[in-house]
Structure formats: structure tokens, C-alpha cells
């Protein structure tokens, strides 16, 4: 978790409550369980929420592997199988490359087990920013709030 009010990984009611762990070979593993609150069509996950889960999983990967503050510049998703309510996506993400401030990463999400069928793939460009990005455009005390989460999850 990088911030307790984050929609993706924080403790908010209605948030995605995702957690990520670093695995071998700099792969980062995240899980997202689809609930009734995440539906688009009856009984199926909403694609935009799945994209959100991948934004979180890839952002956490870029942040934790590279340790450079960055924001999503571009996020592309392929939805290759329906994701039913009650299923869990096992997401594995990795950094693909760095070109100056441009940080490229990708992920795939498998249904219900780590070796289940791939349901979603995503690629993202994160852009490195100065820490002032968060204090100027967000909350003036953004760094204190982020630092507090770092202390809880060093
Ligand atoms: C010490 C700290 C360590 C940290 C450790 C932390 C651990 C855990 C961490 C973290 C977990 C995080 C989990 C969060 C996950 C969710 C993340 C989000 O949802 S972020 C919110 C949504 N995104 C925005 O709000 C961005 C809004 N956009 C902007 O602010 C700007 O447009 C920005 C910064 C992206 C770029 O603006 P410019 O003015 O700074 O830079 P320019 O020159 O425009 O772009 C730089 C390069 O990137 C390319 N670029 C930028 N956007 C692009 C795009 N959409 N497509 C293609 N290329 C793009 C440009 O063409 C340029 O490339 P060329 O250098 O010329 O080669």
C-alpha cells in the first residue's frame, strides 16, 4: 500500500483493496477480487474497473522496482476473457524498460489461479515526475501523507 486513501490499495470503503508483493526476477504480484460492486454487465466485471486494477498493479510495480516517483501517462488494456463476479484476478507485472523519464511496464491477469487462463493484459507508460507534482497539483501535504504509508509498508 502506498497511501491509505488510494482507491486501488487504500482502506477506503468501496475501494479495490489491492495488495502487491515483490516476487522473483523483479516480478510484482497483485490480486484483485471482483465483487458485486464492480459489475458492468450483470455478473461481470466492469472493464474500467479492471483497467483501474491494472493501473494500480503496474503503478505499484514501477514505484517499488524503480523507486522513482511517477504517474500514469498512458494505459492500454486488452480484455480477452470475461471476468465474473466472485473471481480473483492474479496479476503479474514487470518493468519493461526505461527511456529517460519514460518508464514502460506491463502486466497480465489470470483467472482464479496463478496459472489460470489470461483474462486481461495491460501495458503502460509511466512518466517520472518531481515530487512537487504531488504537492503542486494535489494536496500541499501530499508528501507527508505518502511518507506515512511508506513507514507502515517500508
Ligand atoms: C522517492 C519515491 C519513491 C516512490 C516509491 C513508491 C512505492 C509505491 C509507489 C507507488 C504505487 C503507485 C500506484 C498508483 C497507481 C495509479 C497511478 C495513477 O493513476 S497517476 C494519475 C493519473 N495520471 C495523471 O494524472 C498524469 C497527468 N499527466 C501529467 O501530469 C503530465 O502529462 C505528465 C507528467 C504525464 C507528462 O507531462 P510533462 O510535461 O512532465 O512531460 P512531457 O514532456 O509531456 O512527457 C514526458 C515524455 O513522456 C511522453 N508522454 C507523456 N504522456 C504520454 C502519453 N500519454 N503517451 C505517449 N507518450 C507520452 C512525452 O512524449 C515525453 O516523451 P519525450 O521525452 O519527448 O520522448
Automatic annotation (TrEMBL):
It catalyses: decanoyl-CoA + H2O = decanoate + CoA + H(+); (9Z)-octadecenoyl-CoA + H2O = (9Z)-octadecenoate + CoA + H(+); hexadecanoyl-CoA + H2O = hexadecanoate + CoA + H(+); (5Z,8Z,11Z,14Z)-eicosatetraenoyl-CoA + H2O = (5Z,8Z,11Z,14Z)-eicosatetraenoate + CoA + H(+). Residues 43-111 form the Thioesterase domain. The keyword Secreted does not apply. CDD domains: PaaI_thioesterase. One of its GO terms (molecular function) is hydrolase activity. Pfam families: 4HBT. InterPro entries: HotDog_dom_sf, THEM4/THEM5_acyl-CoA_thioest, Thioestr_dom. It is a peripheral membrane protein. Its EC number is 3.1.2.2. Belongs to the THEM4/THEM5 thioesterase family. PANTHER family: ACYL-COENZYME A THIOESTERASE THEM4. This is Acyl-coenzyme A thioesterase THEM4.
